[in-house]
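User: Reviewer 2 asked us to show a designed sequence for the structure in our supplementary figure. I'm pasting the structure tokens here. Could you produce the per-position amino acids so we can include them in the response letter?
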């Protein structure tokens, strides 16, 4: 298990509840990693066109959209833990169907089912992590799912390299069926893990919430202080000592949350919604998902030949992103979210610009430019490293912690929905865009978009070390400061 252990001066806190969200993200990106290599073999066996490849790859995010839209309300109603179990069962069934894969139609159906599960999981994993973490270590703990995500991606790339040596019929089917294994493990694991203490308080189950907080806090005093803040945010009298309290049905089910978020929200809530939508949109439209998913094709356009070499090159890319995402986990609570986003955006702008220049030389040269090919590989590795340092993990940490308790699940659902829509646009258009404006032109386009993202990140307030219950006040203060500066 991916159990995280934290050692403090006088106490030892074991955060087992992080295991579930870690495996969720491992599943999500092992699917992305295996699909990146599998499409090479699927196209060869089933004789499908580039348009059909784009549809197969992009349909996951099309069906992730309704999953994102209903996941917030579902988690408010069923709880965070059972929503993760539901997502895992959906993902398990879709992976098995894709592994069977007798035809293109069955692959599309299986990929669609997986997509719906991805919509659920993308929202619930960071939410669950944020709600069980303490303020001082929330950045580290909430980023661990993204670390797992990138190790899942690396696992997908590595498995592609070895499974690609199997027969054409067996190889890609095994690739697509592999994510079913961690899905099954997750279902079993989540049955014994604790529920989010904040969701328990919203249900009026204060006694159960106290027990969970005692497990995930360093001291009894810290647990009681966190419970006091959560009760206040949920509208419960802080002095009330009952284990079961009456909470309005509207608060328990999350009814009216979307209306409060999107229809005449207060100034701080409006700023929070803009921040969440912005970080999720820019995470995708900087083009990294297209580069990751179509990496073999990018390397092929650069001049690399041979399926084995193409798949091996993607392994290096996976190692680079996984390593720097792991480093980011240790920096989030020290450096802060905003600084990492700015450093990340700056690095991505420089490397995408370098990619564009090198790719332009390859495209406009009649001879094979070996030096340019090497630089393209290096720039891609550095680019995904910078994404792993900030834009990748910080997006999920930041958006999962900024919403008020009553709006958190459905607010994050809105952000993740935008994430999936942006992902659909990038993934389904990646091939047609580079064919229209060349591969180098597409890199220049993503450079400009990432520069705009850097400006947006500059406008965000820092949330490092602050309680989840303080976020509305932080954004209210930030909104007033911006108004005064105009």
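Assistant: Here is a per-position design you can include in the supplement:
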């Amino acid at each position: 298990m991916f159990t995280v252990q934290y050692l403090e001066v006088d106490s030892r806190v074991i955060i087992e509840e992080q295991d579930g969200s870690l495996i969720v993200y491992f599943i999500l990106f092992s699917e992305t990693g295996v699909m990146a290599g599998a499409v090479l073999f699927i196209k060869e066996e089933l004789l499908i066109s580039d348009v059909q490849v784009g549809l197969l790859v992009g349909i996951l995010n099309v069906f992730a959209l309704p999953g994102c839209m209903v996941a917030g309300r579902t988690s408010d109603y069923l709880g965070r833990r059972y929503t993760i179990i539901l997502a895992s069962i959906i993902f398990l069934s879709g992976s098995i169907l894709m592994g069977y894969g007798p035809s293109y139609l069955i692959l599309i159906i299986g990929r669609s089912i997986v997509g719906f599960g991805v919509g659920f999981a993308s929202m619930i994993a960071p939410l669950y992590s944020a709600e069980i973490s303490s303020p001082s270590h929330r950045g580290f703990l909430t980023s661990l799912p993204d670390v797992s995500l990138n190790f899942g991606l690396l696992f997908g790339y590595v498995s592609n390299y070895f499974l690609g040596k199997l027969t054409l019929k067996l190889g890609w089917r095994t690739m697509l069926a592999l994510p079913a294994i961690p899905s099954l493990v997750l279902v079993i694991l989540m049955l014994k893990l604790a529920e989010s203490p904040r969701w328990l308080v919203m249900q009026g189950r204060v006694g159960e919430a106290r027990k969970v907080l005692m497990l995930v806090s360093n001291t009894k005093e810290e647990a009681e202080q966190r419970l006091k803040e959560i009760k206040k945010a949920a509208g419960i009298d802080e002095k009330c000592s009952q284990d079961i309290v009456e909470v309005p049905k509207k608060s328990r089910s999350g009814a009216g949350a979307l209306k409060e978020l999107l229809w005449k929200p207060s100034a701080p809530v409006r700023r929070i919604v803009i921040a969440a939508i912005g970080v999720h949109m820019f995470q995708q439209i900087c083009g990294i998902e297209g580069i990751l998913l179509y990496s073999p094709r990018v390397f092929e356009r650069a001049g690399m030949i041979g399926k084995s070499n193409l798949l091996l090159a993607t392994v290096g890319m996976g190692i680079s992103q996984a390593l720097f995402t792991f480093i980011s986990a240790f920096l989030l609570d020290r450096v802060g979210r905003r600084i990492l986003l700015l450093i990340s955006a700056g690095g991505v702008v420089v490397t995408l610009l370098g990619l564009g220049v090198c790719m332009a030389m390859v495209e406009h040269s009649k001879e094979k430019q070996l030096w340019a090919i090497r630089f393209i590989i290096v720039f891609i590795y550095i680019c995904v490293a910078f994404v792993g340092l900030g834009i990748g993990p910080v997006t999920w940490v930041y958006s999962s912690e900024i919403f008020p308790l009553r709006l958190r699940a459905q607010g994050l659902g809105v952000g993740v929905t935008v994430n999936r829509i942006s992902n659909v646009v990038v993934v389904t258009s990646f091939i047609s865009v580079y064919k229209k404006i060349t591969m180098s032109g597409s890199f220049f386009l993503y450079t400009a978009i990432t520069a705009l993202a850097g400006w947006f990140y500059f406008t965000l307030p820092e949330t490092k070390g602050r309680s989840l219950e303080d976020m509305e006040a932080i954004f209210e203060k930030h909104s007033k400061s911006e108004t005064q500066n105009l």
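For the response letter, you might also mention the following. The longest helix spans residues 408-458. The CA atoms of residues 17 and 193 lie 6 Å apart.
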